[in-house]
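Quick question, first post here. What does this chain look like in 3D?
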Amino acid sequence: MESQEETPLFVYVHVERLDGEKERLQLPKDLQEPMRLYINEHPDNWKALLKGGLINVPTKPYRKKSEPPMTIAYILNVYRRPGQQRKRTRGQFLTKENWQQPGMAHFFETLRFLQHDYKKATQRRQIVDYLRWKWRKKWHKLNNNKKETHQ
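> Answer (accepted):
Ran it through. Tokens below.
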């Protein structure tokens, strides 16, 4: 009897940028194996690790001699599918629980992780992006609380 080799599944994220644009990107190669291990250990709730988190994504296509500018996107959903694509996230991400913690010390600690070793222009953009996501989360929470009290 011939053994059928399983088609490998790759982890993808559906993200939203601050401008409202949504796209589907594959996680980078160096995160695929750790994610497979995590999925095997947490088969029922593995998506919760990334869903609602923030991740670095390119704003332009990669070129051979230069890295594109990066922005921070919100992870709407996580899924697996066979096949790979060229358009990928970077490996720096923050879980929902991590990036939504209060405090400036925590903000700067997690920002340094997201900034990795990017160019100064990208690092400045990431400061603004991260602040905007934090502000959106706070504003959204405040507005939802107001709606609940007025109903």
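Residues 61 and 68 are 6 Å apart (CA to CA).
Residues 9-149 form one domain.
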